[in-house]
Amino acid sequence: MKELALKYGCNPNQKPSRIFMTEGELPLEVLNGRPGYINFLDALNSWQLVSELKAATGLASAASFKHVSPAGAAVGLPLSDTLKKIYFVGDIDIDDSPIACAYARARGADRMSSYGDFIALSDTCDRATALLIKREVSDGVIAPDYTEEALEILREKRKGTYNVIKIDPAYRPEPIERKQVFGITFEQGRNEIKLDAPALFENIPTANKTFPEEARRDLIIALITLKYTQSNSVCYVKDGQAIGIGAGQQSRIHCTRLAGNKADIWWLRQHPKVMNLPFVEKIRRADRDNTIDVYISDDYEDVLADGIWQQFFTEKPEVLTREEKKAWIAQNTKVALGSDAFFPFGDNIERAHKSGVEYIAQAGGSVRDDHVIATCDKYGIAMTFTGVRLFHH
Questions:
Q1: Whole-structure pTM value
Q2: For strand 163-167 and strand 176-181, is the pairing parallel, antiparallel, or unpaired?
Q3: CB atoms within 10 A of CB 89
Q4: Under a CB-based contact definition with an 8 Å cutoff, are residues 217 and 387 in contact?
Q5: 393 labelled catalytic
Q6: Which of 232, 262, 325, 348 is catalytic?
Q7: For 291-337, what is each residue's pLDDT tens digit?
Q8: What is the C-alpha to C-alpha distance for residues 217 and 240, in angstroms, rounded to an integer?
Q9: 3-state class of 70 per DSSP?
Q10: Known catalytic residue: 392?
């Protein structure tokens, strides 16, 4: 198949719409549903991310994409009982499925942002992964293959309209890419830079120069995630998964704050008070996720006020106080942080430190590098200057 007509473009008034190849056949097949323009943008960007993660780490990888940026990305490491509980996957046996573990992590890190996601899987989608996908609000999935059982499960989703795309993992695009803006064609070489090279850790200007293997892995995950995130962008990673992604802000400190706040929420969801919230039976998954988000925030009265809490809980929970939140966040450690370009000021490091960051990878090259380095040294943070910028637009 050389081209595929789409219902419409980014918006219903943008017609006609299609995807097509100028040379050769499309390297994908729609196995179910009718993906749209934005679906394919998410699918093809997220596929690049997970295939690159798999190549760099050797681990099954997954991404949860929304509006051409990842809401979550992860490799298929086993989940602790705590993560299984806060990701609500304890009732499905995923221990023997690395790709299911990867998606549980990618979806679970920021469930609010992942609502209605497009999923990318580096490996064959199996039964366990399909069962995870089946119960989430999602627009579609792209993978190199599907087991028959997984495909049967996915074809039942959304009354049979769920988008399932199979992509040829051997496909390699042309080295030059083009796009049009306002009738003018832009052309550039594809960003083929590899982000798993030891050279990324050769220029370490901080006093602390120690990067354990787990930290190097997490920084590689952060950088590859940033490569497919709308700039400016910053990514916090811990234990093989993104825990906070800040994208598309005009100021880098705003990205750092946004991603840091998401990382804090991820960590706060593991607080005993949050894990033991007494939800009413059969609460909808989206309502539960939203309730947790509000409970953790300063607007907790929106779900704890008399006459309201009864909608969500069997009994009124205790408030998670600001002091308790601050003390809990202070226990988060060994977080890795990547930036798609240099940090211009030390304020980014100050904010990152508050969320447990101990390892940083950034391009370097700011006129204030000395201030950034000094701020890292103040907190004993190890930072590498990669010399690589990863803008994505």
A1: 0.96
A2: unpaired
A3: 23
A4: no
A5: yes
A6: 232
A7: 999 999 999 999 999 999 999 999 999 999 999 999 999 999 999 99
A8: 7
A9: strand
A10: no
